[in-house]
Amino acid sequence: MADKIKNAKIVFVVGGPGSGKGTQCEKIVAKYGYTHLSSGDLLRAEVASGSERGKQLQAIMQKGELVPLDTVLDMIKDAMIAKADVSKGYLIDGYPREVKQGEEFEKKIGAPALLLYIDAKAETMVQRLVKRGETSGRADDNEETIKKRLDLYYKATEPVIAYYEKRGIVRKINSELPVDEVFAIVEKAIDELK
Ligand SMILES: Nc1ncnc2c1ncn2[C@@H]1O[C@H](COP(=O)(O)OP(=O)(O)O)[C@@H](O)[C@H]1O
Ligand SMILES: Nc1ncnc2c1ncn2[C@H]1C[C@H](O)[C@@H](COP(=O)(O)OP(=O)(O)O)O1
Ligand SMILES: [Mg+2]
After folding, report:
1. How many angstroms does the Cα of residue 20 sit away from the middle of ligand 3?
2. Label partner for 52 (CA 20 to 30 A): which of 7, 121, 146, 170?
3. CB proximity list for 31: less than 8 A, separation 6 or greater
4. How far apart are CA 85 and CA 88, in angstroms?
5. pLDDT tens, 12-64?
C-alpha cells in the first residue's frame, strides 16, 4: 500500500507555533492542488471523535507536549495513502517536530523534496497565538501553554531545520511580512520543484 506514495512529492512545512504554517498551506492548496496534512488537525480530529485515544492525546496537547511519535506518524501515513490516487503532492504541516520524527518518516514513507521553514520572531508568534486564542477554541492557545510550546519548538524542532539544511532542501520564508507577501516567497520555492 505504501508503494503508492513512494514517488509522491513531499514538502515538510516546519515553523514555530503561530508562525503561519496553516495559513500558507491553505494558499498552496488553492494554487497548486497539493494535499494538506496538518499533524495538529489530524490529532484534533481524533480528540473530537471522543475516543479513548483522543482523550489521552488531548491531555498531552493541553500541556503543550508532543504526542507519541508512532501515533502521529501512523495518522499521517494513513491520510497520505487515502489520497494517493488524487494527490499532486503532499504538504506535511507540523511534522517533523524532532529529528527522530524525520528519520522515522523517511524509513516508513519517503524523503522530502523540500522543507519550507516558516520563520517568525517569538514575540510575533506569541501575539498571533494569543489573538488566535480569542476565537480558535483550541485548548493550547493560552499564554501558559503557548510558552511551553515555544520552548519545545526551540529545543526539539529547530534542530530539524539544521538536519535538512545539510541536504540543501531548506527554504527559509520570512513570515513577518503580510500573508500575501509571505506567499510570494513560498511560491518561488514551490515553483523551483517543478
Ligand atoms: N503573515 C502573517 N501576518 C499576520 N498574521 C498572520 C500571518 N500568518 C498567519 N497569521 C495569523 O497568525 C495566526 C497563526 O497562524 P497559523 O497559520 O494558524 O499558524 P500555525 O499553523 O503555524 O500555528 C492566525 O491567526 C493567522 O491568521
Ligand atoms: N508531529 C507531532 N508530533 C507530536 N505531537 C504533535 C505533532 N504535531 C502536533 N502535535 C501535537 C502537539 C502540539 O502542541 C499540538 C498542536 O499542533 P499544531 O496544530 O501543529 O500547532 P501549531 O499549528 O500551532 O504549530 O499537537
Ligand atoms: Mg497550524
Report:
1. 7
2. 146
3. 187
4. 9
5. 999 999 999 999 999 999 999 999 999 999 999 999 999 999 999 999 999 99
Ligand nearest to the CA of 19: 1
> What's the complex ipTM?
0.90
For residues 71 and 43, give the distance between their C-alpha atoms in angstroms, rounded to a whole number. Answer: 9
Name the residue of 24, 42, 43, 104 whose CB sits within 8 Å of the most ligand 2 atoms, as the mutation to test its pocket. 43
Which cell goes with 184?
Answer: 510570494
How is residue 51 written as a grid cell? 475516543
Phi then psi dihedrals of residue 174, to 5 deg: -75, 105
Q: How many Å lie between the centroid of ligand 3 and the Cα of residue 66?
A: 14
128 is in an annotated binding site: no
Distance between CA atoms of residues 85 and 189, nearest Å: 25
